[in-house]
Amino acid sequence: MGIYGVYIVSKSGGLIFNYDYTVPKIETEQTFSYPLDLKLSYENNRLLVSFGQRDNIKVGHVLLAINGIPVSGRKLEDNKDALEMLDDAANYPLNLKFGRPKMTVNEKIFLASMFYPLFAIASQLSPEPRSSGIETLEADTFKLQCFQTLTGIKFIVIADPTHTGLEQLLKKIYEIYADFALKNPFYSLEMPIRCEMFDTNLQALLEQADKNGINGI
Amino acid sequence: MSRQSTRLDVKKVNSELFTLTYGAIVSQLMKDYENVEDVNKQLDRMGYNIGVRMVEDFLARTNAGRCYDLRETADKIQYAFKMYLGITPALTNWSAAGDEFSLTFDTNPLTEFVELPDNYQNLKYSNILCGALRGSCEMVQMDISCWFVQDQLKGDLATELRIKFNKRLEDAIPAGED
């Protein structure tokens, strides 16, 4: 059991709220000698492992730090180029930290607005008339549950595939939204939700759902 | 169908406090605008803004589905009045086409301690209700008009709120429905 995150998409398809509840942090730090037995490639402003999976370093992980100095893009914090540093035998042994890439806010907004047409297409593709859009989307590592209100707002929760009772959880999140976002006079509709009360109540709900199962709420 | 018991406890408030707060708003608006028509308009606008938010609260708590007939809508509106104002208006005067009806109130909690001064006879004191109904129906893709035809404040026996269904807002219906 585990809830990974909650997303709220507005009527017009913009991401108005996202919250990462539990994202397992996977990071491994190892000392390497020359030559490096991993193939790195530079994609989307990140240094990714493209081949040469071993131990806990998997293809798709990004280089987070060299000798404890964080890497951002392809540059180290002290403005040295990371790739040049890795190519130079004189620098070895090097201590490299790899980990799973974190989604940036922009990527989340991008994905949320991508889900919007998918949802609409699903209802069009349906062989039966008057079908709803995507309600559940399952993969081997997660399950996505979506609930669209009559007013067109989508509440999305991402959880472990074995998690049950996500529909009820989404209804509860809707109640919290109605109570703490909409009744906040300083919240304007369709805008990103930045209400502290909403955050704390949502967090309490997720904690409870995680601990006691959804029936305990 | 009562308001579900949730973690969020059901906060009840004395209707007198509500009545007086509303009275304070109206009298402040009268001071600010001096023109009765402007006050009516402003109350309607305030109601609209309340309605577009309040409808989410109603939907979240009642699990109400979409309405495909004005009679269903009327029942839900009646239920909403019970939920938010503690009164159950009667549904009367259905038009033959079924696209218009009236909500008739024996008592209106908004006007509990109110008497209209003679020079304010054009003031639609409870006009906020019209705005709220219009706003909340618009959020569920129904365009309605709403106005008072009788008002106890103006010497009528009952307060009557007329609701007319104009059209469904087809463009606004979210994908995955219809």
Automatic annotation (TrEMBL), chain A:
CDD domains under this entry? TRAPPC4_synbindin (cd14856)
- Gene Ontology CC terms, in alphabetical order: endoplasmic reticulum; Golgi apparatus; TRAPP complex
Major subcellular site: endoplasmic reticulum
Q: So which domain of life are we looking at?
A: Eukaryota
Q: Tell me which Gene Ontology terms the entry assigns under biological process.
A: endoplasmic reticulum to Golgi vesicle-mediated transport
Listed A to Z, the keywords are: Endoplasmic reticulum, ER-Golgi transport, Golgi apparatus, Transport
Checking Pfam families in the record gives: Sybindin
Looking at the keywords, is Transport present?
yes
Q: Which SUPFAM superfamilies match?
A: SNARE-like (SSF64356)
Q: Where in the cell is it found?
A: Endoplasmic reticulum; Golgi apparatus, cis-Golgi network; Golgi apparatus
Oligomeric state and partners?
Component of the multisubunit TRAPP (transport protein particle) complex, which includes at least TRAPPC2, TRAPPC2L, TRAPPC3, TRAPPC3L, TRAPPC4, TRAPPC5, TRAPPC8, TRAPPC9, TRAPPC10, TRAPPC11 and TRAPPC12. Interacts with SDC2. Part of the multisubunit transport protein particle (TRAPP) complex.
What PANTHER family does the record tag this protein with? TRAFFICKING PROTEIN PARTICLE COMPLEX SUBUNIT, TRAFFICKING PROTEIN PARTICLE COMPLEX SUBUNIT 4
Name assigned to this protein: Trafficking protein particle complex subunit
From TrEMBL, chain B:
By sequence similarity, the record places it as follows: Belongs to the TRAPP small subunits family. BET3 subfamily.
GO CC annotations, alphabetized: endoplasmic reticulum; Golgi apparatus; TRAPP complex
For this UniProt record, give its keywords in alphabetical order, as a comma-separated list: Endoplasmic reticulum, ER-Golgi transport, Golgi apparatus, Transport
Cross-referenced InterPro entries, in alphabetical order? Bet3, NO_sig/Golgi_transp_ligand-bd, TRAPP_component
Lineage, please?
Answer: Eukaryota, Metazoa, Ecdysozoa, Arthropoda, Hexapoda
Q: What is annotated about its quaternary structure and interactions?
A: Homodimer.
**Location (main, coarse):** endoplasmic reticulum
Q: Is Endoplasmic reticulum there in the keyword field? A: yes
Where does the record place it?
Endoplasmic reticulum; Golgi apparatus, cis-Golgi network
User: What's the short name of a Pfam family annotated to this entry?
Assistant: TRAPP
Role summary: May play a role in vesicular transport from endoplasmic reticulum to Golgi.
Matching CDD domains, A to Z? TRAPPC3_bet3
What name is this protein filed under? Answer: Trafficking protein particle complex subunit
What is the scientific name of the source organism?
A: Sipha flava
UniProt keyword Endoplasmic reticulum present: yes
Output one GO BP term. Golgi vesicle transport
